[in-house]
Amino acid sequence: RSCLNDISEQLERTRYQRSTLRIDTDMGFASYWLLPRLNDIQALIPGVEVQISTSPNDYNFRDNNAHLAIYFGNGNWPGTQAQRLFPEDVVPVCNQNLIDEIGANPSPDKLLGYPLIKLPETHPQRWLTWEDWFRQHQVISQQHTASRTFNAYSLVIQAAIEGQGIALGWRPLIDSFLASKQLFRCGPEMRTERGYYLISASGKPSSAQQEKVKAWLLDEAWNFHLKKNTLQ
Length: 232
Known about the structure:
The chain is 35% helix and 26% strand. The protein is an alpha/beta fold and 232 residues long. Strands 1, 2, 3, 4, 5, 6, 7, 8 and 9 form a nine-stranded mixed beta sheet that branches. Strand 5 (116-118), helix 5 and strand 6 form a beta-alpha-beta unit. The radius of gyration is 21 Å and the shape is elongated.
């Protein structure tokens, strides 16, 4: 009777435990792209608790316990299946006051006269830098004493919104700010071979919930590309 009671209690606890689906990513992607879509993801898998976890570090398969991950890089993470959601498309952005001062469609060299807002350098380099962007447009850059460096992309974007300088905007993270006219494009867009990838463990069976969310994320990224190409 004691054993049967223990089994009954365990079954009762299990019945009320919620299934979970954990998605790991970085703070910028979570804040500006994933969070606005969280209700849509939750609607796909009712009864499953969606957990979002963020890290400033590069993706590490061995240390990661997430069901799915979305990370920035070159797509080469051994032991995983990586599908690119978005390429690294980067465009300079600033607020209304600065774009009025700089003018529409300024030449790349004109940006040298304004403070540049940036992320810290990494070794090896993990993302596009201002030096890369100027080099792509045949502009010899120089050290900016008025430039400002922040260790979080949310601070970079907030500084640009407040008119503290010009920032590099990663798409699709900045698209809502462009649509609301909190930020404006102030230079040509540049693309690299890196991007945001949807990552899952290879050789490990996925649940129906994981597959449903994966398919939705890929469709959502595809719809973004279609919309972007239509507007261009």
